[in-house]
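Field log, afternoon session.

UNIT: design team B
ACTIVITY: writing a sequence onto a fixed backbone
BACKBONE:
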């Protein structure tokens, strides 16, 4: 039985499945700082295999995973290139400036996609006045662009420019499995065009905690040391790694249900006159409810009264579908909303 979770705020709200809870309870444990927790070792083995990389590191969160990967790629004073609305640039507390003393150079994307020519232009030439550009960061799916899945050829186009200029490529793949499912490709087709990848276990894949960082062994070894520096060395972490194994091995295919539900939701909202502002490709629907004359207060009140959590701000909000929301829930949400608009 899937526990209902009528909460549109994010897919981070997902709660572990009964099988995940059982797996935590029964997990074999060790001390992961000594690298002898068998469940973490197994999660890292599976993670590397599924994502097609040599090595893997279990970290506490997506933010920590991006940070340790980027720190492992760079040196103090380097410049890195990011899409201007990327999560790393906008929503990770400026950590790279603080921890890595890195310069950020942003490139404007269209629907999350950067023009490879713009990336090329952003790379610094060798000059005594300039910091060296050493890393390109890519986000797939792109969250603030509306959960857009960047295609395999797009990924390749970034990779080609990066490699022509000797840059590393880090993929913030918090939701890269959503991208793979939406594009109908094996996730490795996407991840082959990044040196390192961060994936979140605790979003649509429904594990309670954690992310994985994968990449070449030398970079992951460095990332492991940075994780320790940041206080992310965990001990009997098998308790939280066990659900992660289920996340990557059993929860990926069901993301298609979330995508289908997002489409049903978007169509229903459009019929009610509520403007959907993104192209719905994965599990996110961005709406502008000012199209029916509603304020954020009106939206939030209506959702609360209907038993849903949603966080309207200004003239709109983001609605995210995930484990714990089924098609019948979307239909009943739309029916109830129809009575109020
Ligand atoms: C694209 C993207 N990257 C990274 C993160 C950070 O993950 P966490 O909240 O686990 O730190 C998020 C979180 O929403 C995200 O959407």
């Amino acid at each position: 039985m899937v526990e209902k979770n009528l909460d549109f705020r994010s897919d981070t709200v997902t709660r572990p499945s009964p099988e995940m809870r059982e797996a935590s309870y029964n997990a074999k444990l060790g001390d992961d700082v000594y690298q002898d927790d068998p469940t973490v070792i197994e999660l890292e083995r599976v993670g590397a295999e599924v994502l097609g990389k040599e090595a893997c590191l279990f970290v506490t969160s997506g933010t920590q995973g991006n940070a340790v990967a980027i720190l492992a790629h760079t040196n103090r004073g380097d410049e890195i290139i990011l899409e201007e609305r990327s999560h790393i640039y906008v929503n990770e507390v400026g950590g790279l400036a603080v921890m890595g003393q890195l310069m950020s150079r942003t490139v404007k994307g269209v629907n999350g996609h950067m023009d490879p020519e713009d990336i090329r232009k952003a790379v610094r030439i060798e000059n005594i006045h300039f910091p060296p550009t050493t890393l390109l960061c890519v986000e797939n799916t792109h969250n603030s662009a509306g959960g857009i899945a960047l295609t395999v050829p797009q990924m390749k186009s970034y990779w080609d420019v990066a490699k022509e200029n000797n840059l590393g490529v880090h993929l913030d793949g918090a939701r890269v499995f959503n991208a793979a499912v939406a594009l109908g490709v094996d996730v490795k087709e996407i991840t082959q065009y990044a040196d390192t990848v961060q994936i979140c276990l605790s979003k649509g894949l429904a594990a309670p905690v954690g992310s994985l960082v994968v990449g070449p062994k030398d970079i992951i070894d460095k990332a492991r040391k940075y994780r320790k520096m940041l206080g992310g060395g965990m001990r009997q972490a098998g308790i939280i790694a066990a659900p992660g194994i289920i996340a990557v091995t059993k929860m990926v295919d069901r993301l298609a249900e979330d995508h289908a539900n997002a489409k049903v939701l978007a169509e229903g909202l459009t019929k009610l006159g509520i403007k959907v502002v993104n192209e719905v490709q994965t599990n996110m629907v961005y709406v502008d409810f000012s199209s029916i004359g509603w304020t954020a207060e009106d939206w939030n009140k209506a959702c609360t009264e209907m038993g849903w959590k949603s966080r309207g701000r200004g003239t709109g909000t983001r609605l995210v579908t995930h484990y714990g929301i089924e098609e019948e829930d979307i239909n009943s949400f739309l029916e109830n909303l129809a009575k109020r608009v």
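LOG NOTE: The pocket of pyridoxal-5'-phosphate is lined by residues 12, 61-63, 87, 139, 143, 172, 174, 200, 211 (CB under 6 Å).
NEXT ACTIVITY: expression trials, pending approval
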